[in-house]
Design a protein that fits this description.
The chain is mostly helical. The chain has two domains: 7-50, Arc Repressor Mutant (Orthogonal Bundle), CATH 1.10.1220; 64-106. 65% of the residues lie in helices and 0% in strands. It has four helices and no strands. It has helices spanning 19-30, 34-47, 53-85, 91-106. GO terms for molecular function: DNA binding.
């Protein structure tokens, strides 16, 4: 289903056994319809509102770290490319060097503890 004539998107959903009753109880406790309760729960879940302040702070720090690491990765990629571009080898040789660097860097899978 998609948006109806009121512009509200509709979506048919199958719920696991017992979940409908839990939603109904929660909606009644909050004085809302089941639909509104589902929407509120989804919005809170997607925005992180239902999480503790500590969890939200951890997520914020992790997002900052990811952003910083992505920037470092891009800078490293530019540095490696610039280095390879200055080598006295053919274009084919440069492509082989870059391919080998990428294979070595991105094919590695960290070993799990105990292995």
């Amino acid at each position: 289903m998609g948006p109806n004539r009121t512009g509200i998107d509709q979506f048919q959903l199958r719920l696991p056994s017992g979940l409908r009753e839990r939603i109904k109880s929660r909606a009644e406790a909050h004085g809302r319809s089941m639909n509104t309760e589902i929407v509120v729960c989804l919005e809170q879940s997607l925005s992180g509102e239902g999480l503790s302040e500590e969890a939200q702070e951890t997520i914020r720090r992790l997002r900052e770290d990811i952003s910083r690491l992505e920037g470092m990765n891009e800078a490293l990629g530019r540095t490696v490319k610039a280095f390879v571009d200055h080598l006295s080898v053919s274009d084919e040789g440069k492509q082989l060097i870059l391919k080998k660097i990428l294979e070595d860097e991105f094919v590695r899978i960290p070993a799990k503890e105990g292995e």
